[in-house]
Write a structure and sequence with these properties.
With 446 residues, the protein is mostly helical. The protein contains 16 helices and 2 strands.
Length: 446
C-alpha cells in the first residue's frame, strides 16, 4: 500500500512543534489587536473593519504558497523554505506593531479619519497576519505530505494540541508580565508596556520553535514522496499540463466545498469573539467600562488573555477526546454545539470567573476547527499531486468568512445593540455550522 508506513509519536511531534511558536504569535494577535486599536482611538463600530485586510491578504497569498511549494524541491525541502520565510517576517512585524502608538503622530496629521499611528498599526497587522499564515500553512501541508491516512487524525490532533498550548502562552503573556511588575497602563494613545513586552517575547519564541522543526524534520525527496503517495515523480509529470488554481478549484472534491461551508460559519463566529470579547468583558464584568484609557478597561484587556487561555486549555483537553470518536462528523457536530453554548452564555454572564467557564466550552469548537477540516480534506485528496495548492485554496474558507464578518460587523452590532450581542450571534453561527456538517461526504463515510 502506498502510504502504509507509520511515523512515531515524536516524529509527528517534531513535524508540528514549530506550530507551537507560530500559535503564540497568532494568540497575541487575536487577543490584543482590538485592544491595541481601541487604545489608538478606534470606535467600537470600526473595530471589525481592521480585520478585513489581513484575511484578504491570506486569500491571495495562501493559494500561491500552496502552488509554489507544490513545485518546490530544493535542498532545504519542499514546504520548509516558506515556513522559515514567513516566520522571519512575522518576527520583524511583531517588534514593530505594538509600538504604533509611540509614533506620537496621532495629533500631527489625520488621513481619512484615522491617525497616522493607526495607519501604521493597520499595515503592520496586514503583514503580521499574512506572514503568520505563510508560516502556519506549511505545517498543515507537511502533515498531508508525510503522514499516512490512518495516522492523519492523530497527527492533526497533535498539531491541535501544540497549537492550543502555544495559544495558552500567548494569551497569558500580558497578565503575566503585569504580575511581574511591567506597567499595564500607558499615556493615552499608546500601547501598555506589558503588551509590548509580550510581543517581543512571542517573537523570540516563534523563531526558536520554527527553527527546531526546520532542523529536525527531513522532507521527502521527489522519488520517495511519489512512492509514498503512489503517484508519478515530478520529473515524469513535467510533460503534463499543469492546471491553474481556478481550474483546480472547479475540479475540487465535494468534501472541499461542504467542509468549507461549515468553515464559513465557524470562522465568522470566532472573528466576532476576537473582535468583541474585550468590550464585552469590560462592559459586563467591569461595571460598564468603556473608557479605553482607564485602568479598568486595560485590566479587562488582560482578562481577555486569561479567558482565551482557558479556551486554549479547553481545546487541549478536547483535542485528546476527538480521536476517540468513531465518527468524525459526530465529533464535529458535538464540538460545535458545545462551543455554541459557550458563546451564547457570555451574553448573560457578568462575573469574570464564570465567563472563563464559557470560554472553556468554546475551546471544544476551536479544537475541532483546527483538526477535523484538514483531516477530512487531506483524506479526500489522498494521492493528489496538488495537495499544497488545494490546502492553499482551502485557506480561503478561513479568510472569506472573516472578511464578510468584519465588513458587516458594524452593521450587525447596531442590530444586536451591544458587543455581548455579537457573541450571542457567534453562538447562532456555530449552530448553523453544526447543522451543515451532515452535508459532508467522507472517504469511508465516517
Amino acid at each position: 500500500m502506498a502510504n502504509s508506513s507509520r511515523l512515531s509519536f515524536w516524529a509527528m511531534w517534531n513535524l508540528s512543534f514549530g506550530f507551537f511558536g507560530v500559535q503564540i504569535a497568532y494568540a497575541l494577535q487575536s487577543a490584543n489587536i482590538s485592544r491595541i486599536f481601541a487604545t489608538l482611538g478606534a470606535d467600537p463600530h470600526q473595530l471589525s473593519f481592521f480585520w478585513i485586510l489581513p484575511p484578504l491578504m491570506g486569500m491571495i497569498v495562501q493559494p500561491l504558497i500552496g502552488k509554489w511549494s507544490d513545485r518546490t524541491w530544493c535542498r532545504m525541502g519542499r514546504r520548509k523554505p516558506y515556513l522559515l520565510a514567513g516566520a522571519i517576517v512575522a518576527v520583524l512585524v511583531m517588534v514593530l506593531l505594538p509600538n504604533a502608538g509611540s509614533l506620537n503622530l496621532s495629533k500631527a496629521w489625520v488621513f481619512l479619519g484615522l491617525n497616522a499611528a493607526m495607519w501604521f498599526g493597520l499595515f503592520s497587522l496586514i503583514f503580521l497576519d499574512t506572514s503568520i499564515n505563510v508560516a502556519m500553512q506549511p505545517f498543515k501541508m507537511m502533515v498531508g505530505d508525510m503522514v499516512g491516512e490512518q495516522q492523519k487524525a492523530k497527527a492533526y490532533s497533535i498539531q491541535s494540541f501544540l497549537c492550543n498550548a502555544g495559544s495558552l502562552f500567548g494569551y497569558l503573556f500580558p497578565i503575566f508580565f503585569t504580575w511581574m511588575g511591567i506597567a499595564n497602563e500607558a499615556p493615552e494613545g499608546q500601547v501598555p508596556p506589558s503588551v509590548i513586552t509580550s510581543f517581543y517575547v512571542g517573537a523570540a519564541l516563534l523563531i526558536l520553535c520554527v527553527l527546531y522543526t526546520f532542523v529536525k524534520v527531513r522532507e521527502m525527496p521527489p522519488a520517495e514522496y511519489a512512492e509514498f503517495h503512489g503517484i508519478t515523480t515530478p520529473s515524469e509529470d513535467n510533460n503534463r499540463e499543469k492546471p491553474g488554481l481556478f481550474r483546480l478549484l472547479l475540479s475540487a472534491p465535494r468534501t472541499f466545498w461542504t467542509v468549507g461551508l461549515v468553515q464559513f460559519f465557524c470562522w465568522a463566529a470566532f472573528l466576532y469573539m476576537w473582535t468583541y470579547s474585550g468590550g464585552t468583558l469590560a462592559f459586563n464584568c467591569w461595571g460598564g467600562e468603556t473608557d479605553t484609557a482607564s485602568r479598568a478597561y486595560q485590566d479587562a484587556g488582560n482578562w481577555v488573555g486569561v479567558a482565551f487561555a482557558v479556551q486554549a486549555v479547553g481545546s487541549i483537553l478536547w483535542a485528546l477526546v476527538i480521536p476517540h470518536f468513531r465518527n468524525l462528523k459526530t465529533a464535529y457536530v458535538v464540538s460545535l454545539l458545545i462551543g455554541a453554548a459557550g458563546f451564547a452564555s457570555l451574553f448573560f454572564i457578568h462575573d469574570k470567573y464564570i465567563a472563563c467557564g464559557a470560554y472553556f466550552l468554546i475551546g471544544a469548537a476551536w479544537a475541532a476547527m483546527l483538526a477535523l477540516p484538514f483531516t477530512l480534506l487531506t483524506n479526500a485528496l489522498e494521492g493528489s499531486p496538488y495537495m499544497g495548492s488545494y490546502l492553499g485554496l482551502f485557506n480561503c474558507t478561513i479568510c472569506l468568512p472573516q472578511i464578510v464578518a468584519a465588513a458587516t460587523g458594524g452593521f450587525v452590532l447596531k442590530l444586536v445593540g451591544s458587543q455581548a450581542g455579537m457573541l450571542l450571534a457567534a453562538g447562532v453561527f456555530l449552530c448553523i455550522g453544526a447543522a451543515c456538517v451532515r452535508l459532508i461526504e467522507t472517504k469511508h463515510q465516517n
